[in-house]
Design a protein that fits this description.
The structure is a homodimer of 200-residue chains. Chain A folds into 2 domains: 70 residues, Winged helix-like DNA-binding domain superfamily/Winged helix DNA-binding domain (Arc Repressor Mutant, subunit A), CATH 1.10.10.10; 115 residues, NAD(P)-binding Rossmann-like Domain (Rossmann fold). Chain A has 9 helices and 8 strands. In chain A, the strands form 2 sheets. In chain A, strands 5-4-3-6-7-8 form a 6-stranded parallel β-sheet, with helices on both faces. The structure holds nicotinamide-adenine-dinucleotide (2 copies).
Chain lengths: 200, 200
Amino acid sequence: MISHKILKRFLLYRICLNKFQRLGFTKVFSYNLGEEAGVTAEQVRKDFSCFGIKGSKRGGYEIEYLLQEINNIFRQNGERYVIIVGMGNIGQALANYQGFRENKIITVAGFDLDPSKYTRKNVIPVYHPDKIEEIIREYGVKAAIIAVPEAAGQEVCDKLVSSGILAILNFSPMILHVPEHVTVNYVNLRNELESLFYYT
Amino acid sequence: MISHKILKRFLLYRICLNKFQRLGFTKVFSYNLGEEAGVTAEQVRKDFSCFGIKGSKRGGYEIEYLLQEINNIFRQNGERYVIIVGMGNIGQALANYQGFRENKIITVAGFDLDPSKYTRKNVIPVYHPDKIEEIIREYGVKAAIIAVPEAAGQEVCDKLVSSGILAILNFSPMILHVPEHVTVNYVNLRNELESLFYYT
Ligand SMILES: NC(=O)c1ccc[n+]([C@@H]2O[C@H](COP(=O)([O-])OP(=O)(O)OC[C@H]3O[C@@H](n4cnc5c(N)ncnc54)[C@H](O)[C@@H]3O)[C@@H](O)[C@H]2O)c1
Ligand SMILES: NC(=O)c1ccc[n+]([C@@H]2O[C@H](COP(=O)([O-])OP(=O)(O)OC[C@H]3O[C@@H](n4cnc5c(N)ncnc54)[C@H](O)[C@@H]3O)[C@@H](O)[C@H]2O)c1
């Protein structure tokens, strides 16, 4: 099982490799990549071995090959669809963000119980939650964002899982119960802010 | 040095203790708290010893005492002020969130270069960044949120640090360079969403 920490390191490696490529390099050694990413050369090689990524015969790694391998890890070679359930403060902030599209992540639709959210003003179409299953099937969506109040979190989660969602990013401050084959990542903004005050 | 992981566990302990108190309990043992929080009883005792939190003579811990100790860790006994720099998608989502106030975290002001953000519509007053130092001094603010584009991140950070900020929550996707006495927590929403696709 690959941990969340390793995946985050690969996303960091990709940023570093893109930077090296912009500077005109075509090859990189584990110690240069490690130095740029702030980890040891050993850690880089260990991470690469988790995904069967090998160096070239004459030593070092081709940058283009590494970038392709990392894209495979994050399914970047096709369209990556996501839906957002809950189009309040957080849902709208995520829907309005253009950076996801640059990364080939397409937010196909939002869902909300409140009809005032179904306006033309939104960047993405917003529907009633009854259409969740239909949209997931139509686009083959596998990932979803939950940005509803705590009380509605588990019920929304159950509907997503039964419609075939495999990975969820949850902003509501509660633990979601899901079957083995489904992964939940949490962003708890209250705790992120709260823990700051320990340092003041 | 107390790690971010330990602080997050204390925030989780507080949620569990509040729940026990609502159910009418006045005392708790490390194994009940551990079970509710999903950690071992040993881990609970180890965490408590980091802050010199002791059990009562007859065994177990008074819930009221524990809650007070945790409030001290997060400076909850006074007003906790924070400012937000960058009042775009993220800044506004955070400013509009009422949950922080329930937790005695007061967002005193927002700052943005764009004059269209200085409208009455906002929940909090929004000023030009030139007023950052004045507001920090007036309220004795020690914590700040950075929600500006990557290009402006370091410059905003430098201004906050020179005005006396000790802890920063950074949403822009870059590493901020700060002196030893300043702490930066990161929320990288792109990586949070990106890593989901590994599981699809
Ligand atoms: N905004 C923040 O800065 C912030 C900070 C900390 C935590 N959170 C958490 O993130 C979540 C979202 O916060 P927010 O500020 O965007 O809340 P919000 O109240 O602005 O938005 C929630 C939206 O969910 C919709 N909704 C409610 N039940 C629903 C259901 N069953 N199906 C579909 N939609 C439903 C509501 O109509 C509303 O539009 C909450 O759980 C909150 O506790 C937010
Ligand atoms: N919205 C999201 O879902 C999301 C996702 C991933 C990453 N991020 C990151 O979070 C940060 C904020 O994102 P956003 O969507 O809110 O961006 P945004 O463009 O909506 O808002 C940025 C705001 O910062 C202001 N600003 C620019 N330079 C400034 C300066 N020097 N001083 C004060 N204000 C300044 C702009 O006027 C604007 O209002 C960005 O770094 C972005 O890359 C956001």
